[in-house]
Amino acid sequence: MANSSRTRRHWSALTAGCAAIALWPASGLAETNAADIVLQSGFDHIGAEVHMLEHDGRELFYIDEGDEDWRPVVFIGGLGTSLAAFQLTEFARSSRETLGLRMISVERNGFGASAFDPTRGYTGYTEDVLAVLEDLGVEEFSILAISGGGAFAAHLAAAVPDRVISLHAAAAVAWTLPTRSEIDCTRSLEDWNDANERWTHNPMDWWGVPGSPVLVVPGWQSAAYADATRAFYLGGQRGDPGALSREFTQRCDADAVVDASRISAPVYLYWGDEDTSVPLSVMEEWQEAVPEVRKARVYEGAGHTVQYEHWVQIMADMAGYDDHTVVCRDGETRLVPEDEAADLPRDLCAWHN
Question: With contact defined as beta carbons under 8 Å apart, do 208 and 169 qualify?
Fold first, then answer.
């Protein structure tokens, strides 16, 4: 009897709700004829599709966002990030599509769905990226590296110099360049694991950016937390710090430092003058190491999220408009010749509202 009574109450509530719903079109949509409403026939985009490639006994996970005839860009996220870090730039997806950029990101060793092999280093990741590009039929490409991704980008650019159109380093470490600052190689893997458990067991701490300008982007912080959760838990890692620790220890591998003279592509650098994580002195290490720095853009007052605050400028450079500046003029985001930029606000107008 008690179950029957609850069932009747639930049915009454449901029918009452249906009555309210039935009344809604009359009260809320009375001015619109149903026959005139055209609903979508396809799916809206809710995130990059993750693909898998079996190669040399390994499963490689990657995303490939954009048309096949657009300029391919290998996106390499920061230290301890998964391929989902790319999503943090998609607040400017419309501009990316307008500029015709195809973004490819290959997940690194031990993060997200990727199995962890403690013997693999920078060369292994280069091999993974090249395997994915071969499978996709991509010959020439640009490289975009953020923060800790700079160490991997230098290896990739030096491995196949004739295939790299341009290299873009945003607040990117110089750990694998011959001009790098001295690195402490005395810490054991166990010591690194003890230190990194703090981050891998607390993804919100790893990706929390209190006070950063990027927090004005709707959903940015939630997407960042989701990336850390994917990186440290998705493949069953359960917060195991091994992969993150390996990102630090491989700097001390015998083959960690590249022959920077092989990086023949033009290099573009983006830095905030208030970056305390990867300071301006690291940009100088890049400038000293590589043969050609085409542009070195330093943004006053910006910190370690400079790559997001000026993402549209980075994309414009990658698309070949490096002689133009992205500005907000008369309420519209525009590409203007550098000599016309003057004191106009830089990048998306949304940053300045």
Answer: no
Nearest alpha carbon to residue 278 among 201, 155, 180, 211? 180
What pLDDT is stored for residue 4 in this prediction? 42
At position 139, the amino acid (one-letter code) is E
Which residues 6+ apart lie within 8 Å of 119 measured at CB?
A: none
The count of C-alpha atoms lying within 13 angstroms of the C-alpha of 119, restricted to the half-sphere facing its C-beta, is 0
DSSP letter string over 271-311?
Answer: EETT-SSS-HHHHHHHHHHSS-EEEEEEETT--TTHHHHTH
Residue 203 has pLDDT above 80, yes or no: yes
Instruction: Give the global pTM.
Output: 0.91
Q: Residue 28 has what pLDDT?
A: 53
Phi/psi for 138 (5° steps) reads -95, 125
What single-letter amino acid sits at 165? I
pLDDT score, position 34: 87
Domains of the chain and any CATH numbers: 50-322 (3.40.50.1820), 324-353 (no CATH)
Q: Of 268, 329, 263, which Cα lies nearest the Cα of 295?
A: 268
Name the residue type at position 202.
N
